[in-house]
Structure formats: C-alpha cells, structure tokens
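Usage

Read records sequentially. Each one opens with the input sequence:
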Amino acid sequence: MKLYKALFYLLNLLLEVIYFISYPLLRLIGALYQYNESFQRPARCQERPILIHAASVGEVNAAAALIRELLQEGYPIHINTVTVTGRALARSIFPQLSISLAPVDVLHLRQRQMRILQPRLILIVETEIWPNMLYAATKAAIPIVFVNARLSEKSLKNYLKIAPLLQMIGSSIKAIMAQSAEDKMRFEKLFTRVPVTHAGNLKFCLSLPDFDESTIKADLGIREDDFVISWGSSRPGEEELILGILAEPKRSIPALKVILAPRHPKRIPELEKLLSGTNYQKLSKLDPQRGWNILLIDTLGHLTKAYAISDLVIVGGSFYDFGGHNPLEPAYYSKAIIIGEYYSSCQDSVRILAAANAIIISDKDSLLEDILALAANRPQREDLGRKAKIVLTENAHALNVHVRGIKQCLN
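and closes with the structure output:
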C-alpha cells in the first residue's frame, strides 16, 4: 500500500508540473474545441448540492429521470459533464441547474471544485472512475455513490491491477448501485468493502416528450405513406453502410426516407461530403417543399422526434466496434428496433429486450435482409414495438431503488 501511495503522489506531482507547463497550450486547445470552461472556477451554489458526474450524452440521458426525482424531493443539484455535447444536452434538459464542464482530472482542479461547491454527496454515473475525483472527495470527507454502475470484464481486469490504490483513494465510496447482477459481481471483486446493490438500469426509466407525429411529419416534409428509417447515433463507417445498401430498399420501398443522426455533430462536414450527389437536406436548413431522401440531423435535441415518427429505428455505434448506443429511447415510442452485433456499452438493455423478442440483432451482412423483412411486415414491426414498450414498463423499478439507496447515504 505504501508503494501505491508513493506512486500516486509522484504521478500527481508529475501531472501538476505537466499541467502548469502546458497550460497556455491547453487553453489554446480548449478555446478551439470549446473546452475553456474546464479551467474556470465553478459558480458557487447557495446550498450544498448533490454533485452528479455524468460524462457525456449517454450518461446524462441515463441520469435524467433520477435528477428529476431528486429535484422533486427538494435536493439542490450541480452537474459535471466531460464532453461539450454532454453539457449541451444537460443544459437543454435542465436549464435551471448549474452545470460545469469538468474533464480534466488534475488534483488541484478537483479540490477547487470540492472547496467551492461543498457537495453533500457525489453521484458518479456508470463507469467514471476518476482517481483524483475520488481522492479529492476522500480528503474532503464527501460521500460517493456510483449510480447505474456498469463494469465490463475487460475493465475489471485492468482496474484489478491497481485495486489497492483504488481502495486507498476511494474510501469515500459508500455504495455502488449496479445495473445488472453481472456488474454487481464485478464491482464486488474490485471494491471488496463497499456494499454493492443490483439496482437495475436507469435507462429503462425514461420520461420523454410525447409528440404529435402528423405535425412533425408535415414540418419535415414527410408524407403519411412514406416509410421512415432513422439511424440514431451513427458512427464512422455506418453512414457508408446504409448508403451502400440504400439502392435495394429504395426499389422495394419506393417511399423510403432515411434520417441520419450522427453521434457527434462535429462530423457533419465529413457527412456532407459523403452525401454529396444524393438528395439530402440538413435539418438546420430544411425546405420541406423541396423534398429529400435523406435528412441529416445536424443539431442536438431532435433525435427523439425522429424516433417518434419512424417506422423502423436502427441503433448506431453497433455495426462497427463502438460499443453500441441506447436502444431504449426508440422503445419508449414503441418502435421496431434493429441493433448491430457490437453492443457492449448497452449489453444489459439489449439482453433484456432480446429475451422478450423486442429487438432484432443484426450485422453488416444481414442488415439489408432485416430491413426488407420488417418493411414488408407491418404486424411484426408493431409487435416488436409493443414488446419493447412493455420491457420499459416492467423494468422501471430501477428509479425507486436508486432513490432509496441515495437517501440512505444522505441520511
């Protein structure tokens, strides 16, 4: 343990030196990519808040229902995000809250945030094990709870190599609320002295807006008899995949329209080049009267609308090894869902949906066949969507379990 402690202090000293030496360059890069807020002092809260550390879009979405519930209970909330897109989403959902961009795990920055905010509790969403955040919380005697926690077998093997260090810097961890029984067992191996609960997956506890589908379709220039496929949170290679097979569905489905929503808006210029020569429009400059075959969503906050009006949803990040993205948002709207073979980041959700025959697991070679089969079989699409919605309803208990556990730690 003494060796780990010495190494930790030495590495932190080295990190601080590197940070101060490279500070001008970091500020320049931060300004270029809109990360300058990372180096600024957070605003002081009037009350000691619950600090919620949610890395990016997926974690913010997962924690949204929990945040709403805690706000209704009267707890003040401050949100940390690691990405600009995560911050933008958090601000769009919770414009009344204080939100910080905090991706730099340098000790003096973490200690400064703890000193200014003085949080009564830190909730870390999913798998964000940040050593200096843990250490700063431990030194300030701030309790930590991991919520909606997940841990892959690969990550467990890596973390076990520094398990004594994690035990030392993470002594403020009071509870871990795991998504699945498998996650619970992995966390118990890593944090042997921390109580771990199989609390369920908060992503099942969705509260999304209800839309008037006819109005949205009219606004987007979609006819009632059009067949709409939305590809949500697409990643590199997946846009080429759908474009490569688009000709065949177009012959079988003449009224086909495809909505593309890339995971990262910064890829829009790249996708515009890819779509050059096709009949596409960008959502931000849409002319509904001009017509389109492909609609490129180039602004945040519109994916759920696309899901709501779709006949078929394809979940991105899953046809190449990006870990997959959340299939539960289209399930909320009772849509037929296809996901690729790579879904390690949402394994529990897909497993539960698949057990209920509420999702199609496909791959690059089978995607065209699966699209055509579902397009030709409306009853099957409706059955998939109905079962997906039932899965959400049956697994919504996770929110109550999390809230009870958090209240115990607060008390």
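Summary fields computed downstream for this record:
- The chain has two domains: 38-205+397-410, 213-394.
- The CA atoms of residues 167 and 191 lie 7 Å apart.
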